[in-house]
Amino acid sequence: MNMGNIYKSAGEISRAIDAYTQSLAMAQQISNKIMEAHALGSLGFAYSGLSDYTTANNYFQQALALAEQNGDVNAKGTYLGNIGLVYKKWGNFNKALEKMQEALTIHQKIGNRQGMILHYTNMANIYGARGDYLKALDYHKRALEVSQKINARDQTSRGLGNIGDVYGNIGEVDEALKYYQQTLRLKRAIGFRDGEVAVLISIGKIHKIKGEYAAAADSFEASLQVARAIKNEEDESEALIAIGDLQAKRKIIPKP
After folding, report:
1. In terms of Cα–Cα distance, which of 151, 148, 75, 72 is closest to 115?
2. Ranges 10-24, 120-134, 231-245: which has the least confidence
3. What does each C-alpha distance from 147 to 69, 189, 194 come to in angstroms?
4. For residues 112, 37, 102 and 44, what is the CA-based torsion angle, rounded to 10 degrees?
5. Which of 27, 113, 131, 172 is most open to solvent, judged by the fewest CB atoms within 10 Å of its CB?
6. Helices 193-209 & 213-229, crossing angle to 10 degrees?
7. Contact 80, 99 (CB under 8 A)
8. Which sign does the torsion angle of CA 181, 186, 191, 195 carry?
């Protein structure tokens, strides 16, 4: 299982699947039902990474059945949530929400707060995709509340950013800016520089919408400097695009 996780983290999904398949065979050979369920769930994750959601769902369903047999309530909640994500990918939002609610209820009962944060966030994203922004805000704020209670600063920073995104989508730019500034401060405090780039770009876009072009330029330039400092070419490209778009908006011709 550990080798499979290493391969998956490295993006070598095919090799991860081979390792998980070997773990599954071993678990079945020694009749270790808990290990078998974990291997099945890991295969589900791996096939999700390949966008093969039919195969992923098949493995998650098998893992769920074993978790129920084993009396592993926490794992049952996890696999239900994974199945919900598969339904989301298929565009069946109602079924996705149904499975995620089942998962949330289980993790609430056993006090799995990390699971609660995940399910609240996933449900919020579905409501947002459906254009139900009030419910999206509600669920993102529930996730944020749990994150803050357990002092999960990384998840808190993401939650703040998610709320900012929803406010931006509904045109409440001042609220969006408030949440983006909070997440920027937190990302800087925890040293999450990759996340800092995205938030600076989001802040710049809000200033741009408000016609505050100088502030937008400062944010985009700051995002570019961070991207270059951490040598992230994708982030650098996003920052340069944002700067170029702003220059076009202001009809500024860049110096050669």
Report:
1. 75
2. 10-24
3. 31, 16, 20
4. 110
5. 131
6. 160
7. yes
8. negative
| Residue 121 CA from chain centroid, whole number | 8
Structure pTM?
0.90
User: In the block, which residue shows the tokens 């707060």?
Assistant: 113
Backbone φ, ψ for residue 166 (5° rounding): -65, -45
Q: Dmax over Cα atoms in the chain, in whole Å?
A: 70
pLDDT for 118: 98
Instruction: Please write the tens of the pLDDT for every residue from 172-184.
Output: 999 999 999 999 9
Long-range contacts of 115-119 (CB under 8 A, 24+ apart): 115/74, 115/77, 115/78, 115/81, 116/143, 116/146, 117/143, 117/146, 117/147, 117/152, 117/155, 117/159, 118/81, 119/81
